[in-house]
Amino acid sequence: MLPKTTRAKRPVLLIVGCGDVGLRVLRLVASRWRVLALTSSPHRVPELRAAGATPLLGNLDDPRTLARLAGLADAVLHLAPPPHVGERDARTAGLIRALALRSGPRALVYASTTGVYGDCQGACIDETRPLAPATARGRRRADAEARLRWAGRAFGWRTSLLRVPGIYALDREGGDPRERVRRGAPVLRAEDDVYTNHIHADDLARACVAALHRGRPQRAYNVSDCSVVKMGDHFDAVADRFGLPRPRRISRAEAAQEMSPMQLSFLSESRRLMNQRLLHELRLTLRYPTVAEGLGA
């Protein structure tokens, strides 16, 4: 349990990677926490300061700039992605080394990805499913998870791993599902289609806050809503909701000709996430329990 807010001293939260989700978290906690936000971009300093954070300049790709983070925060929210290449997450490794230089945080929450599970062939899975990442991107996330579990045990940090699927919100840059439909991007035909999982950006922010307070040590959580939907059906529903043409349906063989390797990687994994830990251990009541409700908002 983190220290309670008092008039004399508020607990300090360090957000590493304060993008869209980090700013949503900041709005939720600004009245109860003093928030520090690590950024490598000087031009973001005014934006972060206006949002209520104290900006700190530092670069996860240059560990020499991270030493100042040691001993600053009661809790850390790690939302930064791993490097774009390789099988390991050197950014998380450098962050751990910096935080461990002095008295470390009591709690650390990391936003990982459900890609660490690999392809589950449509099975319903919980957090006990063995990790089997099929992409370098997934393996980098699995590496970060392993490093953070180790750090939690070694330094006594209460580390929570949030395994996050597709993040959406109509006001989220890069997360508005209408954009894909408007571009005319195709989806797989029904017999080739895969299950997909989602979480509204506001509910993800609320899950981050819940994990800071109630996450169990070295524990993973599937941060997904309660939808059970295949990808093509999902984008059909988006099109219908906003009066857009439904996406064209293509075969897997046609997708291999039309889509990039990155796009194909999302079509090669199918799983249905169980979220009981999120709902019961973190005691989170989803504001948008299905994508239909999130789009309706």
Radius of gyration: 19 Å
Largest pleated sheet: 7 strands, parallel
Q: Which strands sit side by side, in order, in the main sheet?
A: 3-2-1-4-5-7-12
Question: How far is the first residue's CA from the last residue's CA?
Answer: 33 Å
The structural class is alpha/beta
Can you tell me the CATH architecture of one domain?
3-Layer(aba) Sandwich
Strand content: 15-25%
Q: What is the N-to-C succession of helices and strands?
A: EHEHEEHEEHEEHEEEHEEHEHHEHH
Task: Enumerate the spans where pLDDT stays under 50 for 5 or more consecutive residues.
Answer: none
What is the third-level CATH name, the topology of one domain?
A: Rossmann fold
What's the average pLDDT? 94
Considering the protein shown, what is the CATH homologous superfamily of one domain?
Answer: NAD(P)-binding Rossmann-like Domain
Q: Looking at the structure, what is the overall shape?
A: globular
CATH class of one domain, anyone?
Alpha Beta
Number of DSSP strand runs: 15
Helix share, percent: 25-40%
- How many distinct helices? 11
Organism: Ideonella lacteola
Protein name: NAD-dependent epimerase/dehydratase family protein
Pfam families: Epimerase
InterPro entries: Epimerase_deHydtase (IPR001509), NAD(P)-bd_dom_sf (IPR036291), NAD(P)-dependent_oxidoreduct (IPR051783)
